[in-house]
Amino acid sequence: MNDLHKLKARRAKLRQLEKSSHIRPVPNNVDTNRHLEGNVNQGTLDFSDMSQEYSKRIQNADVSVSREKVQALFKSFDDNIDSLDHILEPVFLSLLDGTMRAFKIGTKQGITATRLYSECKSFSYDKSKDHAPMLDSYTEYLNEQEFIKKHDSRAEYNKGKLVYHDDSSAMNMRDGSKMSKTHKNHFNGEKTATDGYGGNKEIYESGTHAKGVDKHNQRTELDHAVPCKIICNNLKKNKALTDSDIKDIINSEENLVATSFENNRGKEIGKFDKSQSDLQKEINNNCIFNKNGEKIRDLTDEELVVRKNMVEKMGQAQKDMDKKTNQKVINNLKSNKDVQARMAKDAGGAAANQSLGDIIIFMIKPLYYELKDCLVQGIERGVNAKSFKSALSIRMNRMKTHIFAQAGTSLKDGMFSFIKNFISMLLEGIVNCFVGVFKNIVRMIKEGIKILMQIGPVLMDNNKTMEEKGDALLKLAASSLTIFASIGIETWLNSINIGEPWSIIISSVLTAVLTTLTMYLLDKMDLFGLKKEARLNRIDEILSLKADESKDEMFAMVNGLA
User: Fold this and answer.
1) pLDDT greater at residue 427 or residue 535
2) pLDDT digit string (tens) for 120-151?
3) Is residue 529 classed as helix, strand or coil in its secondary structure?
4) Cα–Cα 20 to 30 A to 351, which of 273, 294, 357, 479?
């Protein structure tokens, strides 16, 4: 019997009761009505009044909720958070990301395991197309390093000269005129002078004079405080510097020191091409090491003082050269057309490769959706087909229809993504041209601009509240700044002789762990009160469901009584 028949039967029963319960006047003065005489028993009437009974039960009902039930309800919210999705999954994907980056698999195209998985997982034919996300900063950094390596490979430093691989004439990186001027200014017309690196021994302006007094090792030589080899190998990678700029920086007045032959090239004690860290190691151990890191002998007190002066002079010279390098980079970016063309060409090539990656992912997403649906629902069952051939045809047509329908939108979004990626890669190239502390400042500016290019879709999303938008922007900023951790970890790994590919893999994993912990802490802090609001909404939803259930139970009980 359906609900309509039940309703009709109930109405017929009520009509029958109405007829049979018609109140007739009770005849008076009839012997059989003597039981109606006397006082009314109010207690009996009250007991038979069921409306009052129901009212009392409702009024006296216990509506309090125990603390244990409240805690159980709150715990049910947290039980919905899968630790696999929030901790293990990002770390595992970051391991795949690092492997792909280390072996240059999809890096140029901006295809990472994390991006591929997240976009394919969230894809649906019914869901409107999302904008392609911008490439993460660490992958941009690695792509830019490839351009830097290519620029660096054009020439190599060899015995004071920059030797080109295209058979061009080698450039002498030592500027004789500047070195002679420094030599002259140091002596100021005198025959002897104090050593530029200090110590108790004087240096002689003339080698003949020094030999004549049997102090040939104290003849004067012009030394580059920071070795010419180190500076040249570092700066020839810089895409915003010309080779003439590099030569000018190497021979800066602050980097030229008049010292003795002994301090410069002397047996065992000579500085040669040792770096600041090499000299600091000798100071800390109070001994001299050879190129193989083997101890030669201990330093004397005077030699130790000279070594400390060398390190101090190198630090001062490096600061001055960093300042000069940054100034030349700024000038060339503003006025040197060759530098501008080089930077734009590399940024355009990188953006084009990333656009190719967007197309690849656009094609992969429906394919992944169909393969997953085949495994979960079955090839025929998933599309309600009767045969394998018809199911395959339906799935292929569905993919083709989606691709053709979204092609125009994807092309428009692709042009917008190309512009954003071009700007971001151009800024990444510019950042890597600067040196010292100023480089970190420029990188922060670059990351800020990148964040601004990504907040548009967040701010224009009408389905999100202001609190949700604020939380999304905070997490976007936090994830963008992890680039400093990525580069720092990779640099540290390289300093302890852990090179590629392991440095990239380890850096990717550790950065993912750091990012995951950062997001976890931001969720715990709940600065915008989203978790509180979500819990209140969830409680309201649960109470509404409970009320609907109680309502259904009440009507079921009434229907049963009828």
Assistant:
1) 427
2) 888 888 875 566 677 788 888 889 999 999 99
3) coil
4) 479
**How does DSSP classify residue 136?**
P
> 115: Cβ–Cβ under 8 A, 6 or more apart, which residues?
133, 361
Which strands sit side by side in the sheet containing 155-158, from one edge to the other? 155-158, 161-164, 171-172
Burial category of 209 from C-beta neighbours within 10 Å (exposed 0-12, middle 13-18, buried 19 and up):
middle
| Whole-angstrom distance, CA of residue 190 vs CA of residue 204 | 9
In the DSSP assignment, the letter for residue 194 is: E
Burial of 207: CB neighbours in 10 Å, binned 0-12, 13-18, 19+: middle
Q: Which residues pair with 221 in a beta bridge?
A: 259
What's the pTM value of the predicted model, to 2 decimals?
0.73
Q: Which residues pair with 194 in a beta bridge?
A: 202
Structure-block tokens of residue 163: 């030797």
- Side chain identity at residue 249, one-letter code: I
C-beta neighbour count of 196 within 10 angstroms: 23
Instruction: Return the H-helix or E-strand segment holding 162.
Output: strand 161-164
Would you put residue 386 in left (φ > 0), alpha (ψ -120 to 50) or beta?
alpha
pLDDT single digits (tens) 64-89: 656 666 666 666 555 555 554 566 77
pLDDT for position 22: 53
How many C-beta atoms surround the C-beta of residue 357 within 10 A? 23
pLDDT of residue 299: 93
Check pLDDT > 80 for residue 437. Answer: yes
Which of the given ranges, 18-27, 169-178, 518-527, has the highest pLDDT on average?
169-178
Residue 140 corresponds to which tokens in the numbers above? Answer: 């941009």
**Chain position carrying tokens 């879709």:** 457
Rounded Cα–Cα distance for residues 241 and 250 (Å):
13
- Flag whether pLDDT at 558 surpasses 60: no
Question: Which tokens in the block code for residue 277?
Answer: 């860290």
- Residue 544, strand partner residues: none
Are the C-beta atoms of 131 and 457 separated by less than 8 Å? yes
Distance between CA atoms of 275 and 311, rounded to whole angstroms?
9
| Residue type present at position 281 | K
- Residues 441 and 42: their CA atoms lie apart, in Å, by 91
DSSP 385-453: -SSHHHHHHHHHHHHHHHHHHHHHHHHHHHHHHHHHHHHHHHHHHHHTT--THHHHHHHHHHHHHHHHH
- Which residues are 514's β-sheet partners? none
